What we know:
Blueprint: H1 2-7, H2 13-23, E1 28-31, E2 34-37, H3 44-48
Antiparallel strand pairs: 1-2
Amino acid sequence: xxxxxxxxxxxxxxxxxxxxxxxxxxxxxxxxxxxxxxxxxxxxxxxxxxxxxxxxxxxxxxxxxxxxxx
Length: 70
């Protein structure tokens, strides 16, 4: 679902907030194809679009997810 939303440019509010947090994170690395988290090895954009994903550093813990976004 994360890659689908990434490819078709469907980004929810919680995903946008997560990406903004990741942009400032010291674990973000730039690789061919986008930004990646050096802690978990995931691409940030698709991972941020999946409601039940977590940040291994706890940076997404305060973001509220609406029921319709799941």
